[in-house]
């Protein structure tokens, strides 16, 4: 690793988490993945301090772990997620993006998770003082959290998400190989790895978002207006005469699981920032009308764009693009 890059990572960690956490990061950057025992012995830190530093780093997705053998013993090894540490430089851009797309309440929720790391919805409520909210603010909070999850500004975290990506892939591959009666051929190994990759893509593009639960809401009986989150993440008020045509059927209401923990979805946010830069470039290079058209195209492709590494987007019909352009947009020069 370049000395300048290592120094930048250490400075970022020191500014955000303090010198104790920086000490652990500096060692992992220099030595690679290490067990807790070796971290304690090589840094000279107290075991409690080392554990707490690792907990902070895992909480913010800066460190992952994996099981491995050290001699005859099975040990847990810790590795640095260098890319996520470098993303600390974009904290301001992420916050500005959240405010632009999610509003003031969405920004408050997003900021709380960014500052504290992985959090449950109930934890976010405690941080923001939810009990003191009025009825309108409580409704805004619920809408903001559901929209953040639906549009993947934040993502649900599972036990395997903190495991190093390579080890996670190897574990999935080993499970597939165990199903075979004989040793896999090279062709079978290629197919297994393709299935694992395809499964990840299917889970990402699925309409079922981890952390959301579906509740059937009967709106035919009237009562107080209810809010449901549509597929595009926008709130829809139903009941008491709202949303004509939906009064005689049940509606699916998206609810966020209070016990589920969420973290910032950095890869997704990077896609949003990249798209914004592309739109700004077209506005400067060509004209505002061209940027409006391109913005509509990019917005339509966002749901299925997993990372900035995706080279080709899905196909978008011209009719879809037209429907997603504001009616008052001037496109004479586009």
Secondary structure: elements and pairs:
Blueprint: H1 3-17, H2 19-31, E1 34-35, H3 36-43, H4 47-59, E2 63-70, E3 73-80, H5 82-86, H6 91-116, E4 119-120, H7 121-128, H8 135-150, E5 154-156, H9 165-178, H10 186-205, E6 212-218, E7 226-229, E8 235-238, E9 250-256, E10 261-264, H11 266-285, H12 288-301, H13 318-323
Antiparallel strand pairs: 1-3, 2-3, 4-10, 5-10, 6-9, 7-8
Helix pairs in contact: 1-2, 6-8, 9-10, 11-12
- Radius of gyration over all CA atoms, rounded: 23 Å
Strand order of the largest sheet: 1-3-2
The structure class reads alpha+beta
How many H/I helices?
Answer: 13
Q: How helix-rich are the residues, as a percent range?
A: 40-55%
Broad shape: globular
Low-confidence stretches: 216-252
Mean model confidence by pLDDT: 82
CA(first)-CA(last) distance:
45 Å
How big a fraction of the residues is strand?
5-15%
How many beta-strand elements? 10
- Give the helices and strands as they follow along the chain: HHEHHEEHHEHHEHHEEEEEHHH
User: Main β-sheet, in a few words?
Assistant: 3 strands, antiparallel
Structure report:
By secondary structure, the protein is of the alpha+beta class. It contains 13 helices and ten strands. The protein has helices at residues 3-17, 19-31, 36-43, 47-59, 82-86, 91-116, 121-128, 135-150, 165-178, 186-205, 266-285, 288-301, 318-323; strands spanning 34-35, 63-70, 73-80, 119-120, 154-156, 212-218, 226-229, 235-238, 250-256, 261-264. The strands form four sheets. It has a three-stranded antiparallel sheet. Strands 4-10-5 form a three-stranded antiparallel sheet. Strands 6-9 form a two-stranded antiparallel sheet. A hairpin with a 5-residue loop joins β7 and β8 (235-238). α9 packs across α10. The longest helix is centred in the first third of the chain and has 26 residues, at 91-116. It is globular and about 70 Å long. Mean pLDDT is 82; it is low at 216-252.
